[in-house]
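Hi W.,

Here's what went into the run:
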Amino acid sequence: MEASRPRGRPRTFDRQQALQVATELFWRYGYDGTSIADLTQMMGVTPPTLYAAFGSKEQLYREALLDYIRSNGVLVERVVHNGEPIYSLIANYLYRSAEAYTDPAHPPGCMLQLAALTCAAENEAAHKTGVELRQEAFQLLVASLEWAKEREELPSETNVFALARMFMALLQGMSIQAVDGASTEELKEMVTAALAAWPGKRPNETQNTIHHRDTEF
Amino acid sequence: MEASRPRGRPRTFDRQQALQVATELFWRYGYDGTSIADLTQMMGVTPPTLYAAFGSKEQLYREALLDYIRSNGVLVERVVHNGEPIYSLIANYLYRSAEAYTDPAHPPGCMLQLAALTCAAENEAAHKTGVELRQEAFQLLVASLEWAKEREELPSETNVFALARMFMALLQGMSIQAVDGASTEELKEMVTAALAAWPGKRPNETQNTIHHRDTEF
DNA sequence: AAATTTTTATAGCGATCACTATTAAATACA
DNA sequence: TGTATTTAATAGTGATCGCTATAAAAATTT
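Here's what came out:
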């Protein structure tokens, strides 16, 4: 099956690959800290090519962040489709985040949690993008805890908003501490300490010594 | 008692006040997001005056951050000098941080926790300043928990490093969530949920309904 | 082959970046 | 009253910022 080519001159670069290059740069250096010159140089394209493909620096940032989330934010899909118990799901997610945030193969921490926390006043659009996408992630976490409460996996008096904020804070704190050089094991020990705050009884206590394949989950 | 004036032309601006202006700008907009033009305009001085007084943008940033910490980081002084029980000290500090991070009188969150998490590669010195000062704060938190353990306020098997990381993560998560628009009450509820992870028995359970004067502590 | 469509690179736009050479102004000291 | 000392503003420096006008190149369609 040969896909019919579009009409004009064909692309000489991989758009998705260029997007991942942009993601890594924005992730490590932030919105203000990444220049168009940085992007074009690492992508191997010239400025007009970048603008033809992505519109503007702000649009490229948003698309890069959305692509990062699509590739890495799998928590809710799992709770919905697998029906996994909420405790093991969240505990495993936290331990796996401790590994991912310290993986030297990419910048430290979670790109979403670090996205445009501070930036120049004239780049408020990028700031709002970060705020908006973090709020969406928070709402999904709240929803997954709500569903677990309906399934009676959490005590009926549980404050799911407060609990969701606490797990968000753990992911955010792990991101900053990964930037500051914390090791995988140090972050995992913190997760273990924090999971003591789980309300009610914890079914199937998950150990941080359980290691998973990178391709799993 | 009249302080003898120095020899040359006297200053026409308040250096400490200018430093606080710089602190607010760096706090809200970050290192990359704050320009010399922003600083000079808000300080009411010209660029040569700023450089004569503070050396460089990097030195001004470091000085502003150190001044912020000196003004706001009072945790350890309290545990050392007052001999306050560690649980009430940390619980109160967390609840008060929830108030401070959402105070509309200044930028949201903690300037230290948000300091230069990401910035341009050529500004690595500012990034290192942030990392270094957060690591110092973490070591002080570890030390205060260690002393509490020696005073037998914590179980002997307590992992104080993991516990210190958890409280750092709460402060860091509260900072990011304050940036994202969380309310004082939402952050306090999160603190309450997280304090359930406190090891052993908690003496004198602190309520988030206890309100303190702004001038206290 | 000619026309149409799309992507490409060259070259450079005006604005802003962090920073400074120069000189005038304002004080204390001799 | 000079001289030394320090701070002040004027007026810029070269470099980089995000972005684009223009036109050549490479494909399909007619």
